[in-house]
C-alpha cells in the first residue's frame, strides 16, 4: 500500500537544520559530479595522523577493489575519544540506561578514555596485535563499547556477536574469523531475566582452539565455571592495567571490524569494514541524517551486535563528540511504556528504532505512550525493514505528536552507513518511503536483465558507484564478495532488495528481491501486501510470501498475527481478503491466510520470509539455516498448522 501523502519539512526544522532543500541539492550534485573533491573535503572531519593525498580509488568490475583515502593514516578510537578530551573531558559520552529503571550512569569522555586505554593494555598483555581478531559477546553494557574501542585503539579487528545468540552461532563466528580472545560477561540481563553468556561461551569454545583468552565482565555476579589460564576477570585485569596506551597508527584501509549479517536470507556473511572511509561515512551520516547538534541527547535502540549499533550507537555519534544513550533492556519491561519513560527521564531529543518495535508497541495502543510527555523529542528514525505506512503514521502522530520529522533510513550491514533517507531539514516525507539518496550515493533500478530503468519504475535496487562506508570484502572469501554483490548485474553493487521509484524520484523499498511475488505475470512486492494487511484495524503484523500455484504461477500466502484480544474466524478471513482487494486491487488477493500467533524473526527482529516460503510450499524438510532465529518454536507451530491445513 503506497501512501503518497506528503509531509512537508516544518519551517522551524529547516531553519535550524544543517541542510535545507537547496543545500541538499547542491551538496548531492557535487558529491556525484566530483566525488574526489567532495569526499576529500568531508574526510577532513576526522583527525588524521598522516593526511591522505588520494581520495577515491574504486572498481566494481574485475577483481572488485574498493579503496578510499588509501594513503591516509588515522586511528578510529583516537577520533572517537582522545580528540574530544580538550573540549569535553567532563561531558557525557555514553549515557547508559540499565535493564532495570533504577539503574543508569553517565560515562564522560575522560572516563571513556580511561576504560578504553586500560582494556587496550590488557589485550596487548594477552598478546593481541594489530590485525588479530577479537570476538565480543556482551550484553548492552558500557564494557561492550570499551571493548570495541580498545580493539580499534591497538588495531585489532573486532567481531561483535549479539549476546542473544546461541553457543552454536557464537562458535561458527569465532571459528570463521579465528579470534584469539573472547570478551564476554557472567550473565546478561534483559527484561528482568538472566541470560547465561559465560556458560554459552564455554560451550561454544569447546570447539574453538584458536581462543587462548576469555575476558569476563562481572554483570550480575552469577556463578560461573572457570578455566584456569584462559579466563580472566575484566575488573581485576583492568585494575592492574595502565592507562598509557598510544593509539596505533592505522592505514585508512586497515580492517576495523568484521560483522556477520543477520541471516535473513541465508548463511551470515562476515562483512569486513575498514577504518578511514567507514568512519568518515558513519560520522557524516550521523550528523546530517539525525541533524545532530551539540548538546543533543541521541538514542539508538539497536543492539551493538548489529551494524546499526556499530555505526549509530558507537562510531558515528562518538566520532561527533555526541551524547549517545545505550539501553540494556527491552521495550516492554517493566511495561510497554519503557521507551517513552526513558525519553522523559533523560530528555532524549533524537530517537532511532526499528519497525518491529514500533509494531509491537502499536499493538498495546496509545495509552502507554500518552502517559509520558515525550516533549524533548525532536526527531524520529526507523531502520531494519520497510516501515508499513500504518506504523509510520502511528509513529508520527502518537509518538511524535505530529511534531517530529521521521527519517526512514534504508541501509545494510554491507553499506556501513545509511544510503537512502530523508534529511530532516531538506526532505518532505511520504509514509513508507525511504525517499532520496544520501550524498555520494547513486541508486539505480535495473530489470532482471540488468537494463537501467529510468523515471518512475520498479525493479532491482543497485548502487552504481562506491561510497566511503562500503564493505571491502567478505572476510576470508573475496570470491563470495564478488559473487554475492557484483555478479548479478555486472559493474554494479546489487543490494538484494527490490525497489520502486515514484514520479518525485522517491525510493520505496519493496522487500527482498527473492520475496517479490509473480502473480499471473504481475510483480508484487511483499511489503505492499503486508502493509495493506497491517492497515486493517484487527491486524498486528503480517508476512506475505509466494507459493507454487497451478494457474497463477505464484499464489499469495499470508501469515497474519492479530491484535491482542482478536480471535481468528472464517468471517475475518473473508474480511481481510476483501480488504486487500480494496486496498491494492484484485491482483493482490491473498489465496491463503494462515493465522500466526508469532512470526519467525531473526534476533534483530526481521521477519524471515525464506522460512515462511518453505512452509507455504510444504517443503518442511528444507527450512535451511535456522540458527539465527529468535524463537525456533514459532516455526514448529506454523509447520503444524500448515500440515493440518493439508
Ligand atoms: P542477510 O544479508 O544475512 O540476509 P539481512 O539482510 O537481514 O541479513 P542486514 O544487513 O541487517 O542483514 O539488513 C539489511 C536489509 O534490511 C536491507 O537489505 C533491507 O532488506 C532491510 N532494510 C533495512 N533498513 C530498511 C528500511 N529503512 N526500509 C526497508 N528495508 C530496510
Ligand atoms: Mg542482507
TrEMBL record:
SUPFAM superfamilies: Acetyl-CoA synthetase-like
Enzyme class: ligase
Keyword Transcription regulation set for record: no
EC number(s) reported in the record: 6.2.1.1
Molecular function as annotated in GO: acetate-CoA ligase activity; AMP binding; ATP binding; metal ion binding
Residues with the N6-acetyllysine modification: 606
Domain Acetyl-coenzyme A synthetase N-terminal: 24-80
GO biological process, one term: acetyl-CoA biosynthetic process from acetate
Signal peptide: none
GO cellular component: cytosol
Positions of CoA binding: 190-193, 308, 332, 520, 581
Cofactor(s) needed by this chain: Mg(2+)
Binding annotation for Mg(2+): 534, 536, 539
PTM summary: Acetylated. Deacetylation by the SIR2-homolog deacetylase activates the enzyme.
Segments forming domain AMP-dependent synthetase/ligase: 86-465
Binding-site residues, ATP: 384-386, 408-413, 497, 512, 523
Catalytic reactions of this protein: acetate + ATP + CoA = acetyl-CoA + AMP + diphosphate
Keyword terms: Acetylation, ATP-binding, Ligase, Magnesium, Metal-binding, Nucleotide-binding
Domain AMP-binding enzyme C-terminal: 528-606
Function: Catalyzes the conversion of acetate into acetyl-CoA (AcCoA), an essential intermediate at the junction of anabolic and catabolic pathways. AcsA undergoes a two-step reaction. In the first half reaction, AcsA combines acetate with ATP to form acetyl-adenylate (AcAMP) intermediate. In the second half reaction, it can then transfer the acetyl group from AcAMP to the sulfhydryl group of CoA, forming the product AcCoA.
Protein family according to the UniProt entry: Belongs to the ATP-dependent AMP-binding enzyme family.
Protein name: Acetyl-coenzyme A synthetase
